[in-house]
């Protein structure tokens, strides 16, 4: 629906690629919106001196048995069913591990840099 709307706004054809439209308008795709908002909330928690999301997600640091590779920092539980991947206990640790593997520091970045990560924009 988002793509359809953007194609209508830009008067593009049915099969026109929409990646450039998302970049130009600065709209985050609906599939990435949950991860973006979760990242923003998690980033603001230490500043506001609360830890609701951290407690709800039951975040635990992973103890590495081998130190020759860079291990994942957060312990991600193994979901037994597909709906387990939608839970906060799975989403937040896997998202933080993804940020670490991409050398992206959530706590030192600005909101603009975080938004650009999800819009896939080029820094100007």
UniProtKB/TrEMBL annotation:
Protein name in UniProt: Putative tick transposon
């Amino acid at each position: 629906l988002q793509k359809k709307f953007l194609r209508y706004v830009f008067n593009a054809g049915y099969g026109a690629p929409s990646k450039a439209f998302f970049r130009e308008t600065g709209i985050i795709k609906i599939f990435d919106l949950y991860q973006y908002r979760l990242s923003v909330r998690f980033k603001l928690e230490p500043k506001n001196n609360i830890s609701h999301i951290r407690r709800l997600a039951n975040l635990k640091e992973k103890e590495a048995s081998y130190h020759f590779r860079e291990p994942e920092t957060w312990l991600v539980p193994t979901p037994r069913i597909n709906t387990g991947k939608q839970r906060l206990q799975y989403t937040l640790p896997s998202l933080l591990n993804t940020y670490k593997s991409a050398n992206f520091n959530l706590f030192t970045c600005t909101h603009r840099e975080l938004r650009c990560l999800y819009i896939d924009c080029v820094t100007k």
